[in-house]
Amino acid sequence: MRLLIFLAILVTNVYAQTGMAKVNGLDIAFKSYGSKNTETILLISGTNGQLTMWPPVFCEKLVAKGYRVIVFDNRDIGLSTKFDHMGLPDWYAITKAIENNERPMLAYSLDDMSKDATALLDYLRIPRAHIVGVSMGGMIAQRAAYYGNAHVLSLTSIMAGGGQASYALIAKPELLARVPAAGAPNDTAAYLQREIISMKVLAGDKYPPDTKKITAYIRANIKRSYHPNGLVRQGAASLAGYYAGRTAELKTIKVPTLVIHGTNDPIVPVEAGRDVAATVPGARFELIDGLGHDLPEKLYDRIVELIVENAKRVQ
Fold first, then answer.
1. Do residues 198 and 179 lie in contact, with contact meaning Cβ atoms separated by under 8 Å?
2. Model confidence over 29-67: pLDDT tens digits?
3. Cα separations in angstroms, 280 against 49, 160, 168, 267, 292
4. pTM above 0.90?
5. Which of 10, 21, 154, 217 places its Cα 20 to 30 Å from the Cα of 166?
6. Contact call for residues 228 and 191 (beta carbons, < 8 A)
7. What is the distance between the alpha carbons of residues 74 and 190, in angstroms, rounded to a whole number?
């Protein structure tokens, strides 16, 4: 067994370990890269994003910079605990509650999901970590920084708003209109085609994804865990979180904070990201030309450098 592990390290250059954590009464699937004897970077996925949305090569680049990296399946997605017993969201009721500045009835909230993230650190006996989140994961990371700030060394929020209701829900609705409506839940072939189109639209024209690569990626995710109802419930939590009005909370964040956004993001307006940076004391804002709502391979090195630069701001 030791020989097999040694050979795996030689092949991948980075030791990776998978596991299942008992967190807040849930099973949370996770994967750990690198040595336990270094500072940790916790990567949080966006809506419908399994831990596989953080490619090994991206994680290995962070490990090469001297960090341990943890990725995980958020609740209701991937191999983590599902919430089918909660049914599907009542979108009309959720919308009305948001309009009336009331708390909508949800299966769970982004606050709950942020507590999963910090509880995972406790489970792994990691006192504090650098928190990085993308899209919905960015909003979860923000919450971890002000609710679980004892766990957080630094915050990197990527392509995420902070709950400012004054900004449009969708930055470029004309682009998202190209994505077909969801088909029958059991039609994985239609789901595959829809996801291919969606990933291309979200990425934009400057950094278009390779069709063969994203097709293989989506197929692998379907094989690993196909759970469209989890996407819907996460979407409801994300929508409610987007309009939650977290300005006061953002002002309490005291860790080094970096906000990354793309000029071509079709979902989250640039102004929403810029406002997060303006609200968090001492935060930095990095606008990447041509970046959509995606992490393109050509920008891995730049994004890794930005994350590491922010992590090194910790005193």
1. yes
2. 999 999 999 999 999 999 999 999 999 999 999 999 999
3. 26, 13, 21, 22, 23
4. yes
5. 154
6. yes
7. 24
